Amino acid sequence: MAFIEKGQEIDIEQIKSATILSDQALQKKNQRDQELAAIIKGEDQRLLLVIGPCSSDNEEAVLEYARRLADLQQKVADKIFVVMRVYTAKPRTNGDGYKGLVHQPDTSKSPSLINGLKAVRQLHYRVITETGLTTADEMLYPSNLVLVDDLVSYHAVGARSVEDQEHRFVASGIDAPVGMKNPTSGNLGVMFNAVYAAQNKQIFLYHGQEVETLGNPLAHVILRGALDEYGKNKPNFYYENLLDVIKRYEDMKLSNPFIIIDTNHDNSGKQYLEQVRIIRQTLINRAWNEQIKKSVRGFMIESYLEDGRQNEPEVFGKSITDPCLGWDKTEQLIQEIYETLEKEA
Questions:
Q1: What integer pLDDT is reported at residue 7 of this predicted model?
Q2: What pLDDT score was predicted for residue 108?
Q3: Is the pLDDT reported for residue 32 higher than 90?
Q4: I need a surface site. Which of 26, 180, 210, 286 has the fewest CB within 10 A?
Q5: Which domains does the chain have, with CATH numbers?
Q6: pLDDT of 189 strictly over 60
Q7: pLDDT tens digits, residue range 191-235?
Q8: What is the 3-state secondary structure (H, E, C) of the chain?
Q9: Could you write out the DSSP letters of every residue in 20-62?
Q10: Residue 180 backbone dihedrals phi, psi, to 5 degrees
Q11: Choice among 17-26, 109-118, 120-129 with the minimum mean pLDDT
Q12: Cβ neighbour number for residue 300 with a 10 Å cutoff
């Protein structure tokens, strides 16, 4: 093997020990987790927003965003349920670039995985305990799940991971919602096979042990757009796309046909302002078609304190990965969604 040993051995329990939720914080988190499950099962008709920075690169900026989001959540809680994106691992197509807090907890210093794992827990812990929000993260590394499974309330499997068997099988053993994105090719069969695998029992090796899962009925789809053979964006949030996805849910007899629209990535072509238009169009489609209204009940939105992106972390609260909606536009957008839902009632 050509691996070079580097750093100290990871002690999972020691890393977790400093950031265990108190009984009070855990009780509040469990209540919100039950509400989230009810939304995905269709027992609660509120709209789900999984919203926050593309990547959580700066603890204080993320916490400032979380405080603002928590205040806004209270104002719209009867129509909208918010789970904050606290994404700490960034997939890279060719391995270059910023790989997230888990790799590089301080962007001014070299990568440090041990410190990164501690920083990941610390950030989720602080968002939960200081704001009362619950958090979402991308399950880029299934082996790291044991480090955050007591904190993270929503797990996403990205476009580059959704075909991987380990991601699918681990998702089947998670007692929390898992969103499966379509791959960059746009192949819906790949995404639905992932949901099927996650919703069913699996037996596999995990952390050196043979494990059996019960299946996760809260696994569902996230439509994030695709790229054609020429590298051009192919959005998949349109009316006909949604009807196709609903029919595939029915044909495969999957549980809880819940659909989230990812408003950035290949749906927007990473033109972050397009997220507003995509949400407006989807809300119109929901109002027009009862099937769509029943199934399309979530948006994934990339949003931070400042508009756009930057190459280096010079502006506080501005993304260093994908461009995001700034706070002012985010607040206006959530208020617009809320008012639209009020008119629907």
A1: 59
A2: 81
A3: yes
A4: 210
A5: 48-344 (3.20.20.70)
A6: yes
A7: 999 999 999 999 999 989 999 999 999 999 999 999 888 788 999
A8: CCCCCCCCCCCHHHHHHCCCCCHHHHHHHHHHHHHHHHHHHCCCCCEEEEEECCCCCCHHHHHHHHHHHHHHHHHHCCCEEEEEECCCCCCCCCCCCCCCCCCCCCCCCCCCHHHHHHHHHHHHHHHHHHHCCCEEEECCCHHHHHHHCCCCCEEEECCCCCCCHHHHHHHCCCCCCEEEECCCCCCHHHHHHHHHHHHCCCEEEECCEEEECCCCCCEEEEEEEEECCCCCEECCCCHHHHHHHHHHHHHHCCCCCCEEEEEEHHHHCCCCCHHHHHHHHHHHHHHHCHHHHHHEEEEEEEECCCCEECCCCCCCCCECCCCEECHHHHHHHHHHHHHHHHHHC
A9: PPPHHHHHHHHHHHHHHHHHHHTSS-PEEEEEE-SS---HHHH
A10: -105, 115
A11: 109-118
A12: 27
Does 92 have pLDDT greater than 80? no
For the record, the structure tokens of 135 come out as: 């958090």
Residue 99 is predicted with a pLDDT of 84
Q: Which structure tokens are listed for 84? A: 């904050």
Cα distances (Å, whole numbers) of residue 90 to 111, 244, 328: 13, 30, 25
Q: What is the tally of helices (H) and strands (E) in the chain?
A: 12, 11
